[in-house]
Amino acid sequence: MIFFFSSQNGTASDSNSYFLINLLGKIGVNISSSMGISVANFIVRKTAHVTEYFILFMLLYFGFKRTYLKNIIIYPAIITILYSISDEFHQLFIEGRSGRIKDVFIDSIGVLIGLLIIGIKNKVKEQKTYPRA
Fold this sequence. Notes:
This protein has helices at 2-7, 10-26, 31-35, 37-64, 74-91, 101-129. The longest helix has 29 residues, at 101-129. The termini are far apart. The protein has 6 helices and no strands.
């Protein structure tokens, strides 16, 4: 899905963002009127970056969880960030798109959210297994 969306030219990509902004407006979440359409477009696009890379990280994590490797959390994080870098490079060749290092950092927020959720989950699990005296 990430590759598919990244392969769309700039016009098609903007169209997807505006479609989502209009859809949100129809269900009562009108983000464009309070901040302007260009700011709303920016927020939708960057939220999509974080979300798609969070999902990729979590899918990789659950895949690696079934292996016998140690420190499995590092592999999905590295793979996700490397994919983000390759995706931004890919966008350099798409009309109306540009590869930006700042988008790699934004994508990495999805990884950080995943790491945080897994860390909290493991901490809660650990506390249930070894209750304090």
